[in-house]
Amino acid sequence: MIPISDENATRHAPVASRTLLVACCVAWLWQLLAGPWGTFAPAALGFTPAWFLAGGSPEPWLSWAPFSVNIVTYLFLHGGWLHLGGNMLFLWIFGDDVEDALGQPGFILFYLGCGMLAALAQAAVDPSSTVPIVGASGAISGILGAFLVLYPRAQLNVLAPVFVVMEVVRLPAWLVLAFWFGVQLLYDQSGGGAAGGIAFRAHIGGFLAGMVLAPLFLLVSRRPYPALSPAVRAR
What we know:
Layout: E1 2-6, H1 15-33, H2 36-45, H3 49-54, H4 70-73, H5 81-102, H6 104-125, H7 137-150, E2 155-162, E3 165-172, H8 173-191, H9 200-221
Antiparallel strand pairs: 1-2, 2-3
Helix pairs in contact: 1-2, 1-5, 1-6, 5-6, 5-7, 6-7, 6-9, 7-8, 7-9, 8-9
């Protein structure tokens, strides 16, 4: 099932989530156009569990920044067009609603926090791994977790198989996101936290972090718990 839109109406312009989306796209274009710099960016600016836990890369020529910032910079790099496109689709659909609930500063802190916790969750599976992790998936998984607890009854338009063809169907958010999370768990169990080059444990860690952090952010900032708006976007 592939979500293609939601029917929540938002009260404010999603400045923060759209800015993060543009930043990821600009970073990807830089990877494509920067020659050797773009080629080595995942190793230098991605999150490599063994190097992060050891306090930095053993290769001086890959130490482009203090090792501690890699737990943030990895969120803006991607491994391909499909990787970028899938992440940005989910950020576009779900990011504006979560930003509307948390506010712009809160959303940015929430996004980065979920991304960092997702990276640490992946590192917990294989702390000796020297394979760099890149992509916004961990932070966006946090957005999905937040959406589940904030808007469980929201309706999503989802591209899903109906008999032998793909059709757009309308399903509740809790069902779609529970299905998505279940798929991550299955792949995590079958691949030991990573399968096919995808860090599924980071997805799981980010999702759970989002479920916990979103209500805490609302509590600390004293923002109201969002209710599903009767207004819907044009379909």
